[in-house]
Specification:
Strand content: 5-15%
Shape: globular
Number of strands: 13
Strand order of the largest sheet: 3-2-1-4-5-6-7
Order of helices and strands: EHEHEHEHEHEHEHHEHHEHEHEHEHEHH
Structural class: alpha/beta
Radius of gyration: 20 Å
Distance between the termini: 6 Å
Largest sheet: 7 strands, parallel
Helix content: 40-55%
Length: 359
Protein backbone atom coordinates (compact mmCIF):
# COMPACT_ATOMS: atom_id res chain seq x y z
CA UNK A 1 0.00 0.00 0.00
CA UNK A 2 1.54 3.30 -1.11
CA UNK A 3 0.51 5.95 1.43
CA UNK A 4 0.90 9.68 0.83
CA UNK A 5 1.22 11.38 4.22
CA UNK A 6 0.45 15.09 3.98
CA UNK A 7 1.85 17.84 6.20
CA UNK A 8 1.66 21.57 5.69
CA UNK A 9 1.97 23.51 8.94
CA UNK A 10 3.76 22.92 12.19
CA UNK A 11 0.78 21.45 14.09
CA UNK A 12 0.89 18.64 11.52
CA UNK A 13 4.48 17.65 12.15
CA UNK A 14 3.92 16.37 15.70
CA UNK A 15 1.02 14.25 14.38
CA UNK A 16 2.74 12.75 11.35
CA UNK A 17 6.05 11.91 13.04
CA UNK A 18 4.83 8.85 15.02
CA UNK A 19 2.72 7.64 12.10
CA UNK A 20 5.69 7.69 9.71
CA UNK A 21 7.88 5.95 12.26
CA UNK A 22 5.30 3.19 12.75
CA UNK A 23 4.53 2.77 9.03
CA UNK A 24 8.19 2.26 8.25
CA UNK A 25 8.26 -0.76 10.54
CA UNK A 26 5.97 -2.70 8.17
CA UNK A 27 7.02 -3.89 4.72
CA UNK A 28 3.50 -3.95 3.31
CA UNK A 29 3.30 -0.15 3.70
CA UNK A 30 5.20 2.30 1.49
CA UNK A 31 4.90 5.70 3.21
CA UNK A 32 5.68 8.87 1.23
CA UNK A 33 5.92 12.22 3.03
CA UNK A 34 4.48 15.20 1.16
CA UNK A 35 5.11 18.70 2.56
CA UNK A 36 2.86 21.29 0.96
CA UNK A 37 4.98 24.18 2.26
CA UNK A 38 2.05 25.97 3.90
CA UNK A 39 4.53 26.89 6.65
CA UNK A 40 7.81 27.26 4.88
CA UNK A 41 10.39 29.20 6.92
CA UNK A 42 12.92 27.65 9.27
CA UNK A 43 11.23 28.72 12.51
CA UNK A 44 7.82 27.48 11.43
CA UNK A 45 8.85 24.27 9.68
CA UNK A 46 12.44 23.09 9.24
CA UNK A 47 13.40 23.08 12.92
CA UNK A 48 10.45 20.79 13.68
CA UNK A 49 11.72 18.17 11.23
CA UNK A 50 15.03 18.18 13.07
CA UNK A 51 13.53 18.12 16.58
CA UNK A 52 11.06 15.35 15.77
CA UNK A 53 13.60 13.24 13.86
CA UNK A 54 11.48 13.33 10.70
CA UNK A 55 13.45 12.64 7.51
CA UNK A 56 13.37 15.24 4.75
CA UNK A 57 10.07 15.20 2.83
CA UNK A 58 9.99 12.97 -0.22
CA UNK A 59 8.06 15.71 -2.01
CA UNK A 60 7.91 19.42 -1.23
CA UNK A 61 5.23 21.46 -3.00
CA UNK A 62 6.46 24.87 -1.81
CA UNK A 63 3.11 26.66 -1.96
CA UNK A 64 3.98 29.34 0.61
CA UNK A 65 1.70 31.87 2.23
CA UNK A 66 -1.43 33.39 0.70
CA UNK A 67 -5.10 34.05 1.46
CA UNK A 68 -7.26 31.09 2.48
CA UNK A 69 -8.67 30.59 -1.02
CA UNK A 70 -5.45 31.18 -2.94
CA UNK A 71 -3.38 28.94 -0.69
CA UNK A 72 -5.96 26.14 -0.81
CA UNK A 73 -6.17 26.39 -4.60
CA UNK A 74 -2.38 26.30 -5.01
CA UNK A 75 -2.15 23.20 -2.84
CA UNK A 76 -4.92 21.48 -4.81
CA UNK A 77 -3.22 22.18 -8.14
CA UNK A 78 0.17 20.96 -6.94
CA UNK A 79 -1.18 17.91 -5.11
CA UNK A 80 -3.24 16.77 -8.10
CA UNK A 81 -0.01 16.44 -10.08
CA UNK A 82 1.57 14.46 -7.24
CA UNK A 83 -1.38 12.10 -7.05
CA UNK A 84 -1.32 11.47 -10.81
CA UNK A 85 2.38 10.54 -10.71
CA UNK A 86 2.46 8.56 -7.46
CA UNK A 87 -0.52 6.25 -8.05
CA UNK A 88 -1.17 6.19 -4.31
CA UNK A 89 -3.47 3.71 -2.59
CA UNK A 90 -4.23 6.03 0.34
CA UNK A 91 -3.85 9.67 1.38
CA UNK A 92 -3.38 10.37 5.10
CA UNK A 93 -4.17 13.88 6.33
CA UNK A 94 -3.90 15.17 9.88
CA UNK A 95 -5.50 18.02 11.79
CA UNK A 96 -7.44 20.88 10.26
CA UNK A 97 -5.15 23.17 8.26
CA UNK A 98 -5.72 24.23 4.63
CA UNK A 99 -3.43 21.45 3.40
CA UNK A 100 -5.72 18.90 5.07
CA UNK A 101 -8.79 20.19 3.27
CA UNK A 102 -7.10 20.73 -0.11
CA UNK A 103 -5.50 17.30 -0.36
CA UNK A 104 -8.65 15.54 0.85
CA UNK A 105 -10.74 17.13 -1.89
CA UNK A 106 -8.20 16.24 -4.59
CA UNK A 107 -7.86 12.64 -3.37
CA UNK A 108 -11.62 12.11 -3.06
CA UNK A 109 -12.21 13.37 -6.61
CA UNK A 110 -9.48 11.03 -7.85
CA UNK A 111 -11.22 8.15 -6.00
CA UNK A 112 -8.24 7.64 -3.70
CA UNK A 113 -9.30 6.78 -0.12
CA UNK A 114 -8.59 9.40 2.54
CA UNK A 115 -7.67 8.72 6.18
CA UNK A 116 -8.23 11.65 8.53
CA UNK A 117 -6.25 11.56 11.75
CA UNK A 118 -7.95 13.70 14.41
CA UNK A 119 -11.40 13.35 12.89
CA UNK A 120 -14.64 14.47 14.47
CA UNK A 121 -13.39 17.46 16.44
CA UNK A 122 -15.97 20.26 16.41
CA UNK A 123 -16.04 23.77 17.86
CA UNK A 124 -19.45 24.33 16.18
CA UNK A 125 -18.11 27.74 15.15
CA UNK A 126 -18.19 28.08 11.37
CA UNK A 127 -16.41 31.45 11.55
CA UNK A 128 -13.22 29.45 12.17
CA UNK A 129 -11.54 28.35 8.91
CA UNK A 130 -10.36 25.22 10.71
CA UNK A 131 -13.96 24.17 11.42
CA UNK A 132 -14.79 24.26 7.71
CA UNK A 133 -11.65 22.22 6.98
CA UNK A 134 -12.60 19.62 9.59
CA UNK A 135 -16.20 19.20 8.45
CA UNK A 136 -15.35 18.86 4.76
CA UNK A 137 -12.42 16.52 5.34
CA UNK A 138 -14.50 14.21 7.53
CA UNK A 139 -17.29 14.10 4.95
CA UNK A 140 -14.80 12.88 2.32
CA UNK A 141 -12.80 10.41 4.42
CA UNK A 142 -12.93 6.62 4.34
CA UNK A 143 -11.06 6.21 7.63
CA UNK A 144 -11.90 8.57 10.49
CA UNK A 145 -9.45 8.22 13.39
CA UNK A 146 -10.72 9.95 16.53
CA UNK A 147 -8.97 11.18 19.67
CA UNK A 148 -11.95 11.16 22.04
CA UNK A 149 -15.44 9.73 22.48
CA UNK A 150 -17.16 13.05 21.84
CA UNK A 151 -15.54 13.18 18.38
CA UNK A 152 -17.21 9.89 17.48
CA UNK A 153 -20.56 11.26 18.69
CA UNK A 154 -20.11 14.31 16.46
CA UNK A 155 -19.47 12.14 13.42
CA UNK A 156 -22.44 9.89 14.11
CA UNK A 157 -24.68 12.97 14.41
CA UNK A 158 -23.44 14.01 10.95
CA UNK A 159 -24.45 10.66 9.49
CA UNK A 160 -21.04 8.97 9.27
CA UNK A 161 -21.36 5.19 9.40
CA UNK A 162 -19.93 3.50 12.48
CA UNK A 163 -17.68 1.25 10.36
CA UNK A 164 -15.62 4.23 9.21
CA UNK A 165 -14.94 5.56 12.71
CA UNK A 166 -12.02 4.29 14.78
CA UNK A 167 -11.30 5.56 18.30
CA UNK A 168 -7.52 5.29 18.49
CA UNK A 169 -6.30 8.00 20.87
CA UNK A 170 -4.13 11.02 20.25
CA UNK A 171 -1.01 10.94 18.06
CA UNK A 172 0.03 14.34 19.46
CA UNK A 173 0.49 12.60 22.79
CA UNK A 174 2.53 9.83 21.12
CA UNK A 175 5.02 12.52 20.18
CA UNK A 176 4.91 14.29 23.53
CA UNK A 177 5.62 11.11 25.48
CA UNK A 178 8.37 10.03 23.08
CA UNK A 179 10.24 13.33 23.34
CA UNK A 180 9.49 14.38 26.93
CA UNK A 181 12.84 13.15 28.24
CA UNK A 182 14.79 14.67 25.35
CA UNK A 183 12.99 17.99 25.88
CA UNK A 184 13.94 17.93 29.55
CA UNK A 185 17.59 18.34 28.51
CA UNK A 186 16.83 21.66 26.77
CA UNK A 187 18.72 24.68 28.11
CA UNK A 188 16.09 27.15 26.91
CA UNK A 189 15.22 28.50 30.38
CA UNK A 190 18.85 29.29 31.09
CA UNK A 191 19.31 30.83 27.65
CA UNK A 192 16.30 33.09 28.20
CA UNK A 193 17.25 33.94 31.77
CA UNK A 194 14.05 32.45 33.22
CA UNK A 195 14.26 31.83 36.94
CA UNK A 196 11.41 30.70 39.14
CA UNK A 197 7.76 30.68 38.07
CA UNK A 198 6.67 32.01 34.67
CA UNK A 199 3.72 31.92 32.32
CA UNK A 200 3.86 30.87 28.65
CA UNK A 201 1.77 32.52 25.94
CA UNK A 202 0.92 31.61 22.33
CA UNK A 203 -1.41 33.70 20.21
CA UNK A 204 -2.20 33.45 16.50
CA UNK A 205 -5.87 32.83 15.69
CA UNK A 206 -7.59 35.34 13.37
CA UNK A 207 -10.38 35.93 15.90
CA UNK A 208 -7.77 37.24 18.35
CA UNK A 209 -5.19 38.97 16.17
CA UNK A 210 -6.87 40.15 12.97
CA UNK A 211 -8.77 42.97 14.69
CA UNK A 212 -7.33 45.56 17.03
CA UNK A 213 -9.93 45.41 19.81
CA UNK A 214 -9.66 41.71 20.76
CA UNK A 215 -5.87 41.99 20.68
CA UNK A 216 -6.02 45.10 22.86
CA UNK A 217 -8.23 43.30 25.42
CA UNK A 218 -5.81 40.36 25.59
CA UNK A 219 -2.81 42.65 26.05
CA UNK A 220 -4.61 44.48 28.84
CA UNK A 221 -5.23 41.17 30.61
CA UNK A 222 -1.63 40.10 30.11
CA UNK A 223 -0.45 43.38 31.57
CA UNK A 224 -2.33 42.62 34.80
CA UNK A 225 -1.18 38.99 34.98
CA UNK A 226 2.44 39.97 34.26
CA UNK A 227 2.45 42.03 37.46
CA UNK A 228 2.21 38.71 39.32
CA UNK A 229 4.33 36.46 37.12
CA UNK A 230 6.64 36.97 34.11
CA UNK A 231 5.15 35.79 30.81
CA UNK A 232 7.17 34.45 27.89
CA UNK A 233 5.65 35.08 24.46
CA UNK A 234 7.12 33.22 21.42
CA UNK A 235 5.53 35.45 18.79
CA UNK A 236 3.93 33.97 15.68
CA UNK A 237 4.86 35.94 12.51
CA UNK A 238 1.19 36.65 11.81
CA UNK A 239 0.69 38.10 15.28
CA UNK A 240 3.85 40.20 15.10
CA UNK A 241 2.67 41.65 11.80
CA UNK A 242 -0.79 42.54 13.15
CA UNK A 243 0.62 44.09 16.34
CA UNK A 244 2.74 46.38 14.20
CA UNK A 245 -0.14 47.18 11.86
CA UNK A 246 -2.42 48.16 14.76
CA UNK A 247 0.33 50.09 16.55
CA UNK A 248 -0.01 47.91 19.65
CA UNK A 249 3.02 47.49 21.85
CA UNK A 250 4.16 44.35 23.67
CA UNK A 251 6.55 46.43 25.78
CA UNK A 252 4.71 45.44 28.92
CA UNK A 253 6.62 45.02 32.19
CA UNK A 254 6.99 41.29 32.77
CA UNK A 255 6.12 40.26 29.18
CA UNK A 256 9.10 38.95 27.19
CA UNK A 257 8.72 38.35 23.45
CA UNK A 258 10.98 35.90 21.59
CA UNK A 259 11.11 34.38 18.10
CA UNK A 260 9.13 31.17 17.44
CA UNK A 261 10.68 28.14 19.14
CA UNK A 262 11.37 24.58 18.09
CA UNK A 263 9.35 21.69 19.45
CA UNK A 264 11.81 20.52 22.12
CA UNK A 265 12.47 23.98 23.55
CA UNK A 266 8.77 24.79 23.61
CA UNK A 267 7.84 21.48 25.23
CA UNK A 268 10.44 22.10 27.93
CA UNK A 269 9.00 25.54 28.65
CA UNK A 270 5.44 24.19 28.59
CA UNK A 271 6.25 21.42 31.07
CA UNK A 272 7.80 23.81 33.60
CA UNK A 273 5.36 26.73 33.22
CA UNK A 274 3.18 27.84 36.13
CA UNK A 275 0.39 28.42 33.63
CA UNK A 276 -0.08 28.53 29.86
CA UNK A 277 -2.23 31.01 27.94
CA UNK A 278 -3.01 29.97 24.37
CA UNK A 279 -5.45 29.91 21.48
CA UNK A 280 -3.87 26.73 20.06
CA UNK A 281 -5.78 23.46 19.96
CA UNK A 282 -2.81 21.15 20.38
CA UNK A 283 -1.46 23.01 23.39
CA UNK A 284 -4.77 22.43 25.20
CA UNK A 285 -4.10 18.70 24.79
CA UNK A 286 -0.43 18.83 25.76
CA UNK A 287 -1.05 20.81 28.95
CA UNK A 288 -3.74 18.30 29.95
CA UNK A 289 -1.21 15.46 29.81
CA UNK A 290 1.55 17.52 31.42
CA UNK A 291 -0.76 18.64 34.23
CA UNK A 292 -0.10 22.33 33.56
CA UNK A 293 -2.99 24.81 34.01
CA UNK A 294 -4.15 26.17 30.64
CA UNK A 295 -6.22 29.28 29.91
CA UNK A 296 -7.56 29.14 26.36
CA UNK A 297 -8.08 32.55 24.77
CA UNK A 298 -11.18 31.42 22.87
CA UNK A 299 -14.91 31.24 23.53
CA UNK A 300 -15.13 27.62 22.36
CA UNK A 301 -12.96 24.58 21.81
CA UNK A 302 -13.11 21.58 19.51
CA UNK A 303 -11.37 19.64 22.30
CA UNK A 304 -13.97 19.62 25.12
CA UNK A 305 -12.27 16.64 26.76
CA UNK A 306 -9.54 19.07 27.87
CA UNK A 307 -12.23 20.98 29.81
CA UNK A 308 -14.04 18.01 31.34
CA UNK A 309 -11.00 15.86 32.12
CA UNK A 310 -7.99 18.12 31.65
CA UNK A 311 -6.53 21.37 32.93
CA UNK A 312 -8.14 23.70 30.39
CA UNK A 313 -10.41 26.70 31.09
CA UNK A 314 -11.96 28.92 28.41
CA UNK A 315 -11.48 32.66 28.97
CA UNK A 316 -11.94 34.11 25.47
CA UNK A 317 -10.35 37.49 24.88
CA UNK A 318 -12.18 38.99 27.84
CA UNK A 319 -9.76 41.01 30.00
CA UNK A 320 -11.63 40.32 33.22
CA UNK A 321 -11.87 36.56 32.65
CA UNK A 322 -8.17 36.32 31.79
CA UNK A 323 -7.19 38.10 34.99
CA UNK A 324 -9.75 36.26 37.15
CA UNK A 325 -8.77 32.74 36.06
CA UNK A 326 -5.04 33.47 36.08
CA UNK A 327 -5.38 34.82 39.62
CA UNK A 328 -7.15 31.64 40.74
CA UNK A 329 -4.28 29.53 39.39
CA UNK A 330 -1.57 31.73 40.87
CA UNK A 331 -3.38 31.61 44.21
CA UNK A 332 -3.22 27.81 44.15
CA UNK A 333 -6.49 26.94 42.46
CA UNK A 334 -5.22 24.81 39.56
CA UNK A 335 -7.94 22.53 38.08
CA UNK A 336 -7.85 18.81 38.73
CA UNK A 337 -7.26 16.57 35.77
CA UNK A 338 -7.06 13.03 34.53
CA UNK A 339 -5.50 11.83 31.31
CA UNK A 340 -8.21 11.01 28.72
CA UNK A 341 -8.73 7.45 27.48
CA UNK A 342 -6.12 6.10 25.04
CA UNK A 343 -3.84 9.13 25.38
CA UNK A 344 -1.14 6.62 26.16
CA UNK A 345 1.46 7.03 23.42
CA UNK A 346 0.15 4.17 21.26
CA UNK A 347 -2.34 5.88 18.93
CA UNK A 348 -0.06 5.58 15.89
CA UNK A 349 0.29 1.83 16.48
CA UNK A 350 -3.50 1.44 16.49
CA UNK A 351 -3.89 3.50 13.32
CA UNK A 352 -1.24 1.60 11.39
CA UNK A 353 -2.66 -1.75 12.48
CA UNK A 354 -6.07 -0.76 11.06
CA UNK A 355 -4.45 0.34 7.79
CA UNK A 356 -2.43 -2.89 7.58
CA UNK A 357 -5.58 -4.97 7.94
CA UNK A 358 -6.92 -3.19 4.86
CA UNK A 359 -3.68 -3.17 2.84
Amino acid sequence: MKVLNVVGARPNFMKIAPLLREMRRHRELDPILVHTGQHYDEEMSDVFFSDLEIPAPDLHLGVGSASQAVQTAKIMIAFEQVLEKQKADLVVVVGDVNSTLACSVVAAKALVPVAHVEAGLRSFDRTMPEEINRVVTDALSTYLFTTSRDAEENLRQEGVSREKIHFVGNVMIDTLLRFAEKAEASTIRRRLGLEGDYGLLTLHRPSNVDEAEPLRRILKGLEAVARRIPILFPTHPRTARMLEEFGLSTEIPGLKTVEPLGYLDFLHLEKHARLVLTDSGGIQEETTVLGVPCLTLRDNTERPVTLTEGTNVLVGNDTGRIVEEATKILDGGAPRRRIPDLWDGKASERIVEILRRNA
